[in-house]
Amino acid sequence: MELINLSETGSIKDISDRLVLWAQRSPKGLARIEFASDVSQQRVISKMRSHLEILGIAFHEISLLRQQDPETVVVKLLAELNQIPTGVVSITGFATAFTNKIPLEESLRILNFNRERLVAPTLNQIWWMTPSFLQTSVHVMPDLNRWFSPRLQLTELVLLEPAPLASELILNRGVYANFDDAHRRAHNLLQRFEESRKAGTPDRELLITYLLPALEALAEVGAQKELQDLTMQFEGLLGQLKVVNSPELAASLARIANLYFDQGRYSEAEPLYLRSLHINQQQLGADHPDTATSLSNLALLYSSQERYSEAKSLYLRSLYINQQQLGADHSSTATSLNNLAGLYRSQGRYSEAEPLYLRSLQIREQQLGADHPSTAQSLNNLAELYKSQGRYSEAEPLYLRSLQIREQQIGAEHPYTATSLNNLAGLYKSQGRYSEAEPLYLRSLQIREQQQGAVHPDTATSLNNLAGLYYSQGRYSEAEPLYSQALQILEKTLGKDHPKTIATRDNYAQCLKQIASLSK
Asked: Does the bond joining 150 to the residue before it have cis omega, within 30 degrees of 0?
């Protein structure tokens, strides 16, 4: 069966169709795809996998580990390639594979030196490269283009998948891009946005070609403190554009809302989420997967505010849409199951949460792999459930595996790694293993202060948790300033009446009471 390409050059359909035709015509080859959006990349991979399955062609995926020395990258890649007998293999992660301790140009020279060994297996290999990585590669290896046939550019940007949100325990970010690279991409796109606007480019084209990709770049790295000013700048720019309601506008509103959510600015996030949901329902339909994403975003916001009854109905509707439209084993269905389980866990409905977490983990391991960051998230969430039930021996290996995956895949200084450290420390604290818990809490706090800022709800959580450890040990004078600092942050970011603020205030008051009683 031969697929006829009727789609626009560079679109998801065009790229997937071309790759399938290429795989049919030759049992061995090397293709290069330049891409800017991780979401678009995954959609190509998904479509290609489905088509190849129909044709009886085996499809495999290799995700390169992050921050490795170049020799290790080559050795591990060769080992994985040589284990695959035939078919098509998609290789992702080149942009973040090589350690920053060695200049990228030197790492690429080592890759170039080993290219004959890399292309030797009888496979059709697809190498995915970001624009900045490709630009550097071409500079170091002028004959690079002779490696690849075909050489394609994925230009379609899809921004409506589950977007990066703050709650580690509920929704997966998909935040694995290099911060410096994303910042440069966003800055360059904004510069071109201004130049094109002055040249009279239509507003819708400005939004799709420049502003949305810039938002995507920011969303890939999450709400880090360096991006807060840019977030407000984006909202101002959107307000200046005369763009009718469209899925693209819905996506941009959701991206900004996600960043506000990450910063604890819930009251500013809610109207943007609501408007994004309304647009998707109006433009795409009530049962579209992108509408399901909007429902899930809003549900997470409500769940974080303990508005559980409102959140549950939205989560259930989102899950139903994903199951009906995408299938019971789709990764988006796994996310919906994970979200609903998180809600039940927050309400203490553990027996209802566990099978949902287990099913979500199963789908992610099957669809994404045992070492994927989303799998790490499911492991962490299931461990949290077990810890809540006092099932400590079952929770610990899940926490440790989740931490290991995150350190390897997204880096030792990522906020999600900080979350894994924090949660493992919480387990040790619950078991009275205080000397093991303290260094983990301290490292988690350090990462959050550096990556998310000194005035962030997650930083406040780390301060509160470390204070709680000291309080449990009777180290009240050390706990008191940490509780005080955490309370100030939460009152400023979440408000005096937020549940987290109230809980921290109670902890602080109890600590002061203990100090007062000892001074009598």
From this structure: yes
